[in-house]
Structure formats: C-alpha cells, structure tokens
Specification:
five-stranded antiparallel sheet, alpha+beta, elongated, 4 helices
C-alpha cells in the first residue's frame, strides 16, 4: 500500500523558532478563459478580415485568433501572479523586511474577495466567520445578455482565486498572502495558528 501525499499551495521551512512560509497564487484556467471568448470574437474578426485571402481562410483565422486571444490573455495574467513569503517568528510576523510584534497583532483571518472575514483566529481560538454568499448582481448594460453572462462568469472565476490571509495589526489590516483559493487560505491560516 502506498501513502497518499497531500498537496499544498505553500511550503513551510522551520529554522529554529522561525517558520518561513512561501506561497503560490492560484493560477487562472479554462473557467477564466471561456468568458474571454466573447470579447475576443470581434477583435479576432477584425484581425481575420484584414489578413484572410478567402472566406474559408477568414473563418479559420477568426476561430484561431479568438482562441489565441483568450488563451493568451489568461497566460499573460498568470505570468504576473507570483507568490510571496513571510515568516512566523518567536516575537512576531516578518513581512517584506518589517516585523510586526505579536503584542500588537489582534487577529489573523481569511478575507473573501467581497471583503468578508471568513475564519478568524483571536488568541489562538478559531471561530467560524459569517458572510453572505451568492452571485453578484448583474451590472448589465446595453451589450446584452450573452456579454452580461460572460462578464458574470469572469467575475466569479476571478473571485474564486482571490482570497487573502490577513492580520489586524493595531487598527491596520496587513495582507500576509493573497490570490489564494478559499481552501488554500483556510489551510494556510490553520498552519499559521498551529505555529503561533
């Protein structure tokens, strides 16, 4: 029998009483690419009409450029979604060369893309946060239902990968890790809690 291996979007390296966290932001995939097909259609049609020598070639180029623009857009965004690092130490949390002392840290929590505190750790006790979940209201404009559905689908897919792990330092919110999925953020918060 083989043992199952857990998959995490972060690593923790312990060096004495310091624990260095390195995390990767969640990458966007096909769920993000599909809504981009709608705005890519007219752009691809313009490019194809300028470069095609026949109707069949124009249709082929239109489909090709539509897919290329959507895939290229997602690829370009993913190139810039880099992770980050922070350290949980004996006296505080170190982020970007600055140490935040535990005595001034009031809580650690997961923050949803809508701004809700999902899970909060206060004095090493975990309490389930609350929030209203649901689809965003359609912002609909004159573009029509298909474009509105694509826009909503894009917002939803972007929202799914933009959770944050934050701490309240004094009265200021400090983001330790961002661009995470809901599950990654909660697991990262649990790991932080186990080391404090």
């Amino acid at each position: 029998m083989s043992n199952a291996v857990a998959s995490y979007s972060f690593t923790v390296n312990s060096n004495g009483k310091n624990h260095d966290f390195a995390y990767e932001k969640a990458k966007f995939g096909i769920k993000t690419m599909l809504p981009l097909l709608w705005p890519a259609f007219p752009i691809a049609a313009i490019i194809a009409s300028k470069t095609a020598s026949s109707i069949a070639g124009g249709i082929f180029q239109w489909v090709f450029y539509t897919l290329a623009l959507a895939v290229g857009g997602v690829f370009l965004v993913n190139m810039f979604r880099k992770g980050g690092t922070f350290t949980i130490g004996e006296s505080g949390v170190t982020l970007n060369g600055r140490t935040y002392n535990y005595q001034d840290i009031h809580s650690f929590y997961v923050k949803s893309p809508k701004g809700e505190k999902m899970t909060v750790i206060v004095q090493n006790n975990i309490g389930a946060g609350y929030g209203v979940h649901g689809a965003m209201n359609a912002t609909g404009n004159a573009i029509g239902a298909m474009s509105g559905a694509a826009r909503e689908s894009l917002k939803s897919s972007l929202r799914e990968k933009n959770y944050k792990v934050c701490m309240l330092f004094g009265e200021k919110e400090i983001v330790l890790a961002g661009g995470l999925t809901d599950k990654s953020a909660k697991v990262l918060l649990e790991r932080i809690d186990s080391l404090i």
